[in-house]
Amino acid sequence: MTKSRLITLLVLPALLFIGSGSANAAGSMPPGWQETWLSFGVDPYVAESVVWPEYEHYDGFRDFFETTLVYVSGASSSDWPDMSIGIFQMKPSFVEALEKNWQESGLQGPCELDFDTSGTLKAYRDRVSRLHGQEWPVIYLAMFLRSLYSSYGSFDRDGNRVQDGIDSLPMEEQVRLAANAYNRGCEWFEAGRGDPDLLRVRIDKETFPRVLIPSPGRRQHSYAALAWEHFRSLSEDEFH
Question: 215: how many CB neighbours lie within 10 A of its CB?
């Protein structure tokens, strides 16, 4: 059987059975995830809100078939799929850049984290396997937010204040900028060297579908706006 035929056989069932509604619309995320984010020094409400639009319509059935494509990819890196996978819909390329930045930045978590960023097929498959579970996406999200608040923060590596960073902004801006960076991707800089204005690019652009299968008649949304909407709902629930 050819590789292209095998891919077709794997993908078609997923496309046939994907729902058009939200898979995780009810309730919030597990408390254990919040504990992980707190252990990295990350606000759990910000973390949950940043990925909520993706988590809300995550479909495990589709994700299984998309992840399986990794194991029929070719030996050349140009053949490796870079689709969004896992509970928070992260791309392998996004995570690889995050891993490299984490190791170069000197940031610390609650435990030592060491990654293979050699660019080999094994490193790629190991990364995708981590994304397919639940533990690692939660850790990667913590790493992302710690890295974001460092790169675009107010202080350099020596603790000198160098700018009005993302940490100095009102909470609404923090959530919206972090969500936009997560959805669109961002560059990584040394601590305090990233201009927060870079995170505002296309922040209000309504390109995110709230259903798994978008159609011309369905409204698109600003990812950042959806994240802030969820943050507000979490905050309101806390005081009720």
Answer: 8
pLDDT digit string (tens) for 65-105? 666 665 555 555 556 788 888 999 999 999 999 999 999 99
Give me 170's structure tokens. Answer: 């009102």
> How many CB atoms neighbour CB 124 within 10 A?
21
Report the amino acid identity of residue 95.
V
- What are 132's two structure tokens? 């397919």
Task: With H, G, I as helix, E, B as strand and everything else as coil, classify residue 173.
Answer: helix
pLDDT in tens, 141-197: 999 999 999 999 999 999 999 999 999 999 999 999 999 999 999 999 999 999 999
User: Dihedral sign, CA of 209, 67, 101, 33?
Assistant: positive
For 13-35, give one letter per residue: b (16+ CB within 10 A) or e: ebeeeeeeeebbeeebbeeebbe
In whole angstroms, what is the distance from residue 48 CA to residue 37 CA? 9
